[in-house]
Specification:
mainly beta; globular; 35% strand; four-stranded antiparallel β-sheet
């Protein structure tokens, strides 16, 4: 049986950056993926820039190198198609998170199995409103996500795909107790919930429970 200890991750004021070229899928379908052509060159880390409202700004144009910089990707990583002059030159960034208990740092897409974080871009919008699966907000006004095997993100406070009460917004398909910070996070069906499942998470390649700070398969 595989077991993974839950670890708490918090956002930093740093981001990992890439020079990105891509072609929108509505203009061209990648012959290898069927989606869009894409390629990125990693630059390293940089400070995050914020808007006056405290959100990460998407405007990085004044920090991009010129288009003739040789580091810009020339072709799609998947199919090899050359990018055209009209394909965007994007300075792409991902926020870096840190596990305070270990000092490990990572972007969320590369976080280890068992990593847990608050999806603040959801929870910040509902600081004192209703909670429940219909709002993707837990009873502590956080929106918790856990990294599962296969690089799948389990949004605990979201609605389950097999929810039996889809029109009732304030129940929790997964009822959580405890806190991820101290290793007591526990998920079951003991509370205001629906009849879906037994509190487990089922995703491709993994079916298990999060009990007493441990994510383990059935």
């Amino acid at each position: 049986m595989s077991e993974y200890k839950i670890s708490w991750w918090e956002p930093t004021d740093r981001e990992r950056q890439w020079l990105r070229r891509y072609t929108s899928s509505d203009q061209h379908k990648c012959s290898a993926t069927g989606s869009y052509c894409n390629a990125m060159f990693e630059l390293g880390e940089a400070d995050i820039l914020y808007t006056k409202d405290g959100y990460i700004t998407g405007d990085r144009d004044d920090r991009k190198p010129p288009k003739d910089d040789p580091r810009w990707p020339k072709s799609c990583e998947a199919c090899g198609r050359l990018f055209g002059d009209n394909d965007p030159h994007q300075l792409f960034g991902k926020q870096i998170y840190i596990c305070q208990a270990t000092g490990q740092r990572s972007t969320l897409d590369k976080a280890p199995v068992g990593a847990c974080w608050d999806a603040w871009w959801i929870s910040e919008r509902r600081k004192d409103g209703p909670t429940g699966s219909g709002y993707m907000i837990g009873p502590d006004y956080r929106s918790l996500v856990v990294k599962c095997p296969g690089n799948h993100d389990w949004h605990i406070d979201n609605r389950a795909s097999n929810c039996t009460m889809p029109d009732e917004r304030e129940h929790f398909c997964w009822v959580r107790h405890g806190r991820p910070e101290d290793g007591t996070l526990h998920v079951d069906k003991n509370g205001n919930t629906c009849a879906a499942g037994a509190g487990s998470i089922s995703i491709p390649g993994f079916h298990g429970f999060l009990h007493h700070g441990i994510l383990k398969d059935c």
